[in-house]
Design a protein that fits this description.
431 residues; 0% strand; 20 helices; mainly alpha
């Protein structure tokens, strides 16, 4: 029986995972929030670029880890190899049990909610649609990683259609460029604006979970770099188009700026057009999360660091996919869908996930000093400046999250701490 995943993921599919998991509904919803915090369109644009640079610096740093440790499991595997087993386990524990399945649940409900615009449904019907969409993607990813990759590529190109539509028709829209200030520009406001953009750049790291399945894993650093640079450009130009179409005051006070801009450009059907685009975006992100999340329990199962490890660490003998891990993540997601707890859980775990993410960025320094034997084909450029920028940006998110959500941060740490006795029980069982 084949117990290894095949190297079936192409460079284009990996790029589609990066771009497709970053560009979700945030690009259509965040411009107003960022502008309101920044104070002026110019500062808002600078915030989008600054957020992109911080993300890129972090990505370039973790890409060196991905090059040196090209295994399934992504950050979980890197932390384990660099800091020790327990740190990798705690991240994997949180990702497997709560973080990934709760994110999957949230995206399925978002998809069903947007579908309600076209086909009005009861809450029960929306829940059934959410579970149905998840079931479809589960079957596709169980049958073949290639199917998941094709869906991801198609969804990524599909979600770019409304984005490109607003960019092209927005930039050529008759009228002046609205660059008037909406409030006083302050350092605090600009910091809040950058924080708002960083959430819109999130998601790219999940492609590292599949590093062991890339046909050419040496291209992973270039895939991550190109993907994030592409998104930075798209976000900046998209916002520029928004400033051309909507007065700054209107944009700053809009909860759905993408829909409003589309209505101005394309008429009343524009809002429906953008809603459809958001649905495609969410569908692509959902597929990406499901595809990449299963690689974490798979890797943990292979190392016997999960209950029922043999089951979750197995590769399907016929389809050569992590079928059991995919099913487990989907079952947990359905539980969170039915309980309605997914948004609360994702909010609680934001702080914890960024602790591990920051450890990953700093891990470049640790790996070079303490683990010189871990060498890949890629080295982060402008070392140590680039990882330093990434670490400062990640640290900024941690501090901001503690200040804005201290209770959630403490609860998140407590949930993670539950994994400590589980870790030692598993270690004792395995010896």
């Amino acid at each position: 029986m084949n117990n290894k995943l095949s190297k079936s993921v192409t460079t284009l599919e990996a790029l589609a995972i990066v771009v497709g998991m970053i560009i979700g509904s945030g690009i259509f919803l965040k411009p107003g929030i960022v502008l309101s915090s920044a104070g002026s369109p110019l500062m808002a644009l600078l915030a989008w670029v600054a957020g992109g640079i911080i993300t890129l610096a972090s990505a370039l740093s973790i890409a060196e880890l991905a090059s040196a440790i090209p295994k399934a499991g992504g950050l979980y595997t890197y932390l384990e190899d660099i800091y020790g087993e327990i740190w990798g386990f705690l991240l994997g524990w949180v990702q497997t049990i709560i973080s990934y399945p709760a994110s999957i649940a949230a995206q399925t409900i978002a998809f069903a909610t947007y579908a309600n615009v076209f086909f009005p449904m009861s809450k029960t019907a929306q829940t059934l649609l959410a579970i149905g969409v998840l079931a479809f993607l589960l079957v596709m990813n169980v049958l073949s990683t290639k199917y998941g990759g094709v869906i991801q590529t198609a969804a990524t190109f599909g979600k770019l259609i409304p984005v490109v539509g607003i960019i092209v028709f927005g930039l050529t829209y008759s009228g002046p460029l609205h660059f008037e200030a909406v409030s006083a520009v302050t350092a605090t406001g600009f910091g809040a604006a950058i924080l708002g953009t960083l959430w819109a750049y999130d998601g790219w790291i999940s492609v590292t979970n599949m590093a062991g399945e890339l046909k050419d894993h040496k291209k992973l650093p270039q895939v991550i770099t190109f993907g994030i640079i592409f998104v930075i450009i798209v976000y900046a130009v998209f916002n520029l188009a928004m400033f051309k179409v909507l007065p700054a005051e209107t944009l700053a006070n809009s909860a759905t700026p993408g829909v409003e801009a589309a209505a101005v450009i394309f008429g009343n059907g524009g809002g429906m057009f953008i809603t459809l685009g958001i649905m495609v975006s969410v569908f692509g992100s959902l597929n990406g999360y499901l595809m990449t999340s299963a690689r974490v329990p798979l890797s943990m199962g292979e190392k016997r660091m999960l209950p029922f490890a043999k089951t979750f660490g197995a590769i399907h003998p016929k389809y050569n996919t992590p079928a059991n891990s995919l099913i487990m993540q989907s079952v947990l997601a359905v539980a969170y869908i039915l309980s309605g707890s997914f948004n609360m859980l994702t909010d609680i775990l934001v702080f914890v996930i960024w602790i591990f993410f920051t450890m990953g960025v700093i891990g470049v320094f640790v790996m070079r000093k303490k683990h010189p034997e871990l060498q890949g084909d890629y080295k982060v450029p402008l070392y140590p400046i680039v990882p330093f920028v990434g670490a400062v940006g990640s640290g900024y998110i941690l501090i901001s999250t503690v200040i804005s959500s201290p209770v959630n941060s403490i609860i998140g740490i407590a949930i993670t701490a539950v994994g400590v006795p589980v870790f030692y029980w598993l270690k004792k069982r395995n010896h």
